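#dry-run=false #mode=assembly
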Amino acid sequence: MKITDAKVIVCCPGRNFVTLKIFTDAGICGLGDATLNGREKAVATYLEEYCIPALIGRDARNIEDIWHYFYKGVYWKRGAVTMTAIAAIDLALWDIKARALNTPLYNLLGGKSRDGVLVYAHATGKDLEHTIEDVATKVESGFLAVRVQSGIPGIDHAYGVPKDKSPYEPAQKGLPNEETWDTAKYLNFAPKMFARVREVFGEELHLLHDMHHRCTPIEAARLARELEPFHLFWLEDPVSGELQEGLRLLRQHSTTPIAIGEVFNSVYDYTTLITHQLIDYIRMPLVHGGGITHLQKVAAFASFYHIQTGFHGATDLSPVNLAASLHFNLAINNFGIQEYMPHQQIVHDVFTPNYRFENGFMYVDETPGIGVELNEEKAMRYPYQMACLPINRKSDGTLFYW
Ligand code: EZ4
Ligand code: CO
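#status=ok
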């Protein structure tokens, strides 16, 4: 089955998405997500200029060989742009293989280890009481796990917390916004927030929290320790992933489970963290981590250390990534949880997914392949608009370093 062509579709139904479509001489096409928030065109160009010409003529069935061709063959290994491009190729090839064999993707990954995928929702609010209301809304809609983030007294805008009722979107049109951050105010507020959430919602609800790499190791250790009575499912990105020894320091002080890696793209970002058992959940998503072929190996490696998956799943990853992640999560033994934020309706004008949410879990249907269709004609109606993630400064103007 020869690859005859491939093309990159960049569209902006509410936010930017980059999709790779690979064509074969068997008449079967596959889709891969190539969206890297705020750097979309870099991946699109990487694919168009360097990958697609080298893909044409290859046998689409040889996924492992093609993966290594693009990983090792280019000399310049790793990096978010490269690994996102490789992921898009890899996802599209797995989609093609599963469509060719007329079976849902999870069947090729070992079959189902479970019926549904446990997912967590985001609850946010401009202040604590609005956040509590949003947690209640998520619980009422059936979620068993909720990530809680709130506006913080004394901080103008907390990352990822919409100011009004507008949909979640951390990227803003144009060049990066500059926001102000105050760690001391945050550290004072977060334990009070979780005390109140537990008081209102009791012990059963799984609670998660994202620190977005804003703390030093000793600050993170303080918070992880103070949050212990509230039994978090996980504390995410407590320190920058670049500082792996920081996680060891945190570990020495706290039993709060740790998740990290939404900005990672390689197993080599994880080797110390996994083998020294400094974390509990890996966050690297298929789309930024070289696709299924690479994540299968990382997840298997983590499994030997009793570390589970908890893939990134914000709305800046496309429905193709989410659907592929659900197949992956259904199949592997050491699945933990999946982040799930529903895309805006306008996204489903372009992408038609095969998944549904019910009572805290997500399910895929029996559609062969990854199970997502892209309407290219509709995609053309939403042209790319530059948007970037914000930059943070301390209250005295210093640019955040970690
Ligand atoms: O910052 O998706 O856990 N989720 C997150 C997200 C990420 C954005 C980056 O593109 O931290 O809000
Ligand atoms: Co995060």
